[in-house]
Structure formats: C-alpha cells, structure tokens
Design goal:
It comes from Alkalilimnicola ehrlichii (strain ATCC BAA-1101 / DSM 17681 / MLHE-1). Pfam families: Caps_assemb_Wzi (PF14052). The longest helix is centred in the first third of the chain and has 14 residues. The protein contains 5 helices and 23 strands. 10% of the residues lie in helices and 41% in strands. The chain is globular, with a radius of gyration of 22 Å.
Length: 512
C-alpha cells in the first residue's frame, strides 16, 4: 500500500517580539541539584515503575480493584512511592487470592531493586509493515517502529535518579535514526518528583490509547512535577477527594513544524473519592506566543479565542472516569474518556470520546488474565448529526497542531477515526505472558486534509482497517524473549482495492 505522506510546508518567521523563554532549562538543574542537599522523607527512590509495560499496569490495577492499594493510578509514569505499601511488605495481605498475591510478588520484585547503577539492553528485529496504520500504538506497545536497538544506563539513589538512554531505529518515520528518548534526571523533594528529560506520559483509563496524551508519538523533552504518593488531604473540605495525585509538565516541540518549537504544556489532577471510582481531569495546550504571564493566564482560564486576545494556542481538556464492580466473583470495570477540543466560554467543546469495559480473573496455576473492549471516536461532536471533521487535533493558527514528529500525541489513529478494539493479556507466575489484540474501524472518515502541515498523518485518505496481532514473552537466560506477529487488512476507499500487510517481530531484553 502506498502510504507516502504529502510534503510539509514550512513557514520561516521573524523572531518573536517576546523571545521564547528558556526558564525550564535554567530552572531544572538548580532544582534537581537542590534535591541532593535535602533530607529524604522516605526510602523510596525518585524513580518510576517501567512505563508502557501492560503487565505492570495489569498488576497495579488488579491490586487497586482488590482494595490492597489505594489511589487514582491512571496517570503514568507511576512513581514508586505510590506503591510504598507493596515495597514495604514482601508478603501480601492474607485476604488476597492466589492471582492477586502473584501480582503483589511481581510488583514487590520491581520495587526491590537496590540503589546504584543499572543497565538495560533491548534489541528488536521486525519484518513486514510494522508502522501505522498497519500497526497502531496501544498501552504496552508505544510508537511502533521497525527494527531497533535500545541501550540505557541509569543511577537510582536515595534522592536522585538519572537515566541515559539511546536508540537506533531502522528507517524511522521522522528520519531520526538515533535518539535519546527515555533519558531523564529526577529529584525526590518531599512528596514531589521534579524531573527533566524526554519521558513518556500516558493519561487515562484506556488500553487502546489515550485521547489527550498517549504513546503513539515519541516523548518530547521538557520538565515535569509530579506528586509522589497519592495520599488523601488532611484538610476538612478536601479530604472527601480521597487519595489524589497531580502531574504538570512543560515541554518543547520540534523545530521541523509549520510553526517551529512551540511549548507543549499540560496538567492532570486525579483522585479516588471512593474505592471503586477513579476520576481524572486533564488539560493540555500547544502554546506559541507571546510567552508572557498574561498569555499564560489566558491559557490557564481557557480563554484564547475571545476577541482581543493575542495568545496563539491550541487547547484540549476533559475528564475520564473508571468505575469497578464490587462483585469479586465476576469482576468488571467500565470507563470513559471525554475530551474537548478548543473552548467556548472557558468550557471545552467539540468533544471526542473513548468508552470501555474490562474484566479480569484467574486461570490455572495461579495465572491471571485481563480482557477489554473499547470504542473510540476521534471525530469532533461524534455523537451529533452535525459532526465536525478536520477539527480534533487541528488548529488554524498552529497547523501541525497536536502532533510530534509526524505522530499524534493523542489517540493513535489521529482525528476523524472510529475504532473498536478487543484485547486481552495473560500473565503466569513463572514470567510467561501473552497478549492478543483485534481492531476494526474507519480512519480519516472526513477524507480530507485541512491545511498544509495538518490533517490525519496516519491515514491521509479515508481507510477501512482490520488488524489482528499477538505476542508471547518468556524468560531466557538473564533476560526475556518476545515473539510476535500480526496481519492488517487495509482498504483505501479511494482505490477500490484491498491490501493485506503481514508483519512479525522478535526481540530480546536484558537488564543488568
């Protein structure tokens, strides 16, 4: 199938009246170094659980739904401090069933890594069509690429943590063969983690993706602040929120855009008012100019479209909810994510949506499984007869808009797409695991590109998609082997022909 993208038109601009601030670069190092002089409040390091690992997320959610740990844990990366209770107890509570106890033990081993230097080597060989739209990103499988090699070395201390990561990718979509994604420097200050680097973020309860901040694109560099332990507030009015967490970031996007190097800023507040309910409030903005406090204030109150405002920004905001059943005999959870593009009177409008159901349970030999079914529509006002195509993830003033290096920063299909996903995973106590995913839907239903630099980057024209993939992992020597395969049926409606795109991959991961 010919999926060549149209060339992007670049606009050369004169320097802005208010030159872009470098405050995050100037502030990051002093803040991080200051952490070395503070007394640690806990022995848990300023570090996170492995991001984009569906098995770790399954274990965490299994224990949250069992009531063994508390907190709204739909904000990734997840700090180790959020699971301090698991780290402190080698043996799980007696009321957990064998599958929940196995999840406890797996997480405890993850958290028990000692202070000092650690390394990681990953190699992956791929054949066939291993990139979108034939293969879409989802949780645990970020930013699909071809063959690649990853090498990382990191230090984990009592107050500071650092990671230097490098990757080589064969024939990448953005022509960047070498990159340093996943590198960071972080400090644990009280109950907060301050970090600088290129760190993956994933916000929301969905498994097939996130509408506002997912893993379809590479991480952009910047600084972030995150609450480490999601404990409840002691204030009388706020304690009804239950355990809560907050994450804010300020990143810088690439220069190879129609409007080069805008800021990408965002914040997420999530809380758990009752054990069965998790609530997340998220907001992001791509901000070009002017870089003043007044302009930032316009973004903060969601007022950049009013007459007389000179702030150039593209905003998204919304809510996600997850409710789990109290019946442990037949466990299930329902969740949604509802995100608005742009604003009207300070309120997000032109919504896109994700809706899901999941269930989990036990298998022989103390193994566990999770199955989910999701429906996603990235067409603005998808619920209405007056749908707004070429609107979600788009901006007239920032044409490249909600994309980073040719990949959407939100949902993997980009805009104007409708997708149904059925997926599942299997975990065994001996380290073996598997996943299976089936997807079907229509991409770029509007069948048009809005303007140069914008438009759906995954499917430039209307496309029907059916995709099936599976992967199996098992321990071998001091690492882990993975084997996977998939096949996609691509039906471009402007051609009248069907393409079948098979793919396969094999990988090895070694931690030392």
């Amino acid at each position: 199938m010919n999926t060549q993208k149209p060339p992007r038109q670049r606009v050369h601009r004169a320097p802005a009246t208010h030159p872009p601030g470098r405050w995050w670069r100037r502030a990051a190092l002093p803040l991080l170094l200051a952490g070395a002089g503070l007394t640690a409040t806990a022995s848990v390091q300023a570090h996170w659980l492995p991001e984009n690992d569906a098995r770790v997320r399954h274990d965490v959610q299994l224990l949250v739904d069992a009531g063994a740990i508390t907190g709204a844990l739909g904000t990734w990366p997840l700090p180790r401090q959020a699971l301090a209770g698991v780290a402190a107890r080698p043996q799980p509570p007696a009321d957990l069933n064998p599958q929940q106890a196995a999840a406890w033990h797996r997480l405890h081993r993850q958290l028990a890594r000692t202070e000092g230097w650690h390394g990681e080597l990953r190699a992956r060989g791929a054949a066939g069509e291993a990139e979108p739209p034939a293969q879409l990103a989802w949780y645990g499988h970020a930013n699909p690429q071809g063959s690649q090699v990853d090498v990382a070395v990191g230090y984990q201390g009592d107050r500071l943590a650092a990671r230097l990561s490098g990757q080589w990718v064969e024939d990448p979509a953005d022509d960047k063969d070498f990159r340093a994604d996943g590198s960071y420097l972080a400090a644990h200050l009280g109950n907060w983690i301050i970090s600088a680097g290129a760190i993956d973020h994933y916000w929301g309860p969905g498994w097939s993706g996130s509408l506002i901040l997912g893993n379809a694109a590479r991480p952009s560099p910047g600084v972030a602040v995150q609450r480490a332990e999601p404990r409840a507030s002691d204030l009388p009015v706020l304690n009804w929120l239950g355990p809560w967490t907050l994450q804010v970031f300020a990143n810088r996007l690439e220069s190879d855009r129609v409007v080069p190097r805008p800021y990408f800023i965002g914040g997420r507040f999530a809380f758990q008012p009752v054990q069965r309910l998790e609530v997340g409030l998220s907001r992001t903005a791509i901000w070009d100019s002017p870089h003043t406090w007044r302009s930032f204030g316009n973004i903060a109150i969601g007022d950049t479209n009013s007459k007389g405002r000179d702030t150039t920004a593209d905003q998204m905001a919304g809510i996600d909810l997850r409710f789990s059943s109290p019946d442990h005999r037949l466990p299930w959870a329902a969740y949604l994510q509802y995100i608005g593009e742009d604003e009207a009177g300070g309120i997000p409008t032109k919504h896109i949506g994700l809706f899901g159901l999941e269930t989990w349970g036990a298998l022989p030999n103390d193994a566990s499984y999770r199955v989910f079914l999701e429906y996603t529509d990235t067409t603005a006002r998808f619920w209405s007869s007056r749908k707004r195509f070429a609107t979600a993830y788009e901006s007239s003033s920032l044409p490249t808009s909600y994309r980073y290096r040719d990949r959407p920063m939100g949902y993997a299909t980009d805009n104007d797409s409708r997708l149904v996903t059925l997926g599942g995973q299997y975990l065994a106590p001996n380290g073996h695991s598997a996943h299976l995913k089936f997807q079907g839907g229509t991409l770029n239903r509007g069948d048009r590109m809005r303007m140069p630099g914008g438009g759906n980057r995954i499917a430039p024209r209307k496309l029907r998609l059916l995709d099936l993939e599976g992967e199996y992992r098992w321990p071998w020597l001091a690492g882990e082997v993975s084997l996977g395969a998939g096949i996609a049926r691509l039906d471009p409606l402007d051609r009248g022909s069907v393409d079948w795109e098979p793919r396969g991959w094999a990988g090895y991961e070694w931690r030392f």
